[in-house]
Amino acid sequence: MKKVMLMAVAILFSAAAVFAAHSNNPVSDTTKTKKVKPVTKVQYTCTMHPDVISNKPGKCPKCGMTLVKKVDAKKKPAEKRKM
Ligand SMILES: [Zn+2]
Fold it and tell me: What's the confidence (pLDDT) of residue 32?
């Protein structure tokens, strides 16, 4: 009976080791790619006062409205199609 127990423990141990090794790699990989992800420049502006620009969320000093995210509008909006 002891042999069976030993085998079960051995199988469990190797399975755990394989699982740990297997699950460890992709996790560290994804965290790496997440860190590498480029940070897009985000600015916050007031919808009423476009001249109010802040690089962090907050409130407009002029009217107290919550600043909204302003993404660099470098890419063109949808192209107009002749129709
Ligand atoms: Zn404002």
Answer: 59
Please state the domain extents for the chain: 1-37, 38-74
Q: Which amino acid belongs to residue 11?
A: I
Tens digit of each residue's pLDDT (9 = 90 or more) over 18-35: 767 766 655 555 555 566
Q: Closest Cα partner for 41 from 68, 10, 72?
A: 72
Ligand 1 center to 39 CA (angstroms): 26
Nearest to 66 by CA among 45, 42, 43: 45
> How many whole angstroms from 12 Cα to the centroid of ligand 1?
63
